[in-house]
Amino acid sequence: MENISLLGCGAWGSALAQILAENGHNVSAWHYKDDTVSYMANSRKHPHLDGFEFHKNIKFDSNLNNLVKDAKCLVVAVPSHSVRETMVNISNKLSINTIIVNVSKGIENNTLKTMSEVICEVTSKDLSQIVTLYGPSHAEEVIAKHPTTLVSASINSISASYVQNIFSSKLLRVYTNSDIYGVELGGSLKNVIAIATGICDGIGFGDNTKAALLTRGIAEITRLGVIMGANSETFSGLSGIGDLIATCLSKHSRNRYVGQEIGKGNKLPEILDKMSMVAEGVKTTRSVYDLSKKHQIDMPICEGVYNILFNEDDPKTKVIELMTRNLKDEK
């Protein structure tokens, strides 16, 4: 039994807290809204997960200091754009031995750093003490007890195995991987392709189009990942093609939903205003666009999504532009 703290009680953070509690660990969970903390603590319910009841091993606290000081393991489940600020607030309170588990998916705007790089920079932790836990997983299906697989990635095999063991159960199988940057890039960039898939759904295109997007999308992700030092094989794994399939095709995907609404002709600010949860792919699209220019990598799908979201290019026109580019060999 471990004392584990978790930052961020969104749908995914709460699902992971439940897994840890059911595995016998003591979980202390923090959320930035005091009224939400009170609601969950008193009702044992989650505001966005119907029929869900928090395990008795989960307690809630709105004081970051209380959560951090005794934690052997700290799970970071806040939205990616909040990771830096959150970690700054606790950086001088972390135990020297604390293992940090990142489950936030995204590439930081402006710095273009992955979440493990942000955490490493802010906390001055050695990268060997940071683990990224990604994979094809929707909170709604995890709490419904659907068998799920994840990948625990770290440059340190002991850290990766530790996280593998505390999360694994008869319904959650966790693999390890030493390519933390590849895992993070795959799990973050797939959200951009999911927006593209949603746009095609909104327009009314079918399976042919989605198959093309997934296949060419993973090619773009791999192309960028390799030049950034990742292993190409990682993108054939759970945080690559696995996460891509789940996010692009699922009714639970917030990123696919954003794209779908764009494809129907709705405007991005209006879509985001109506959403109660974060679609990470919107901010990640900016970062991916900047990374493609920085590394001079051809990423036509991601660039198309960027121009649709932020330059208000017409989705149907953009699809025609993608289809009529200069013809080339598949590889």
Task: Explain what the structure shows.
Helix 4 (83-90) packs parallel to helix 5, helix 8 (180-203) packs parallel to helix 10 and helix 8 crosses helix 13 (281-294). Helix content is 51%, strand content 14%. It is of the alpha/beta class. It is globular, with a radius of gyration of 19 Å. The model has no long low-confidence stretch (mean pLDDT 94).
Write a concise synopsis of the structure shown:
The protein is α/β, with parallel strands linked by helices and 331 residues long. The protein has helices spanning 11-22, 34-43, 64-68, 83-90, 115-123, 139-143, 157-167, 180-203, 207-227, 238-249, 254-263, 268-274, 281-294, 300-310, 315-323; strands spanning 3-7, 26-30, 45-46, 49-53, 58-60, 73-76, 99-102, 130-134, 148-153, 172-177.
Q: What sort of overall outline do the alpha carbons produce when their principal axes are compared? A: globular
For the terminal residues, how far apart are their CA atoms? 49 Å
Average pLDDT confidence is 94
The major β-sheet equals: 8 strands, mixed
Strand order of the largest sheet: 5-2-1-6-7-8-9-10
| Low-confidence residue ranges | none
Briefly note the structural class of the backbone. Answer: alpha/beta
Helix fraction bin: 40-55%
Number of E strands = 10
Radius of gyration: 19 Å
Q: How many individual helices?
A: 15
SSE pattern: EHEHEEEHEHEHEHEHEHHHHHHHH
Strand content: 5-15%
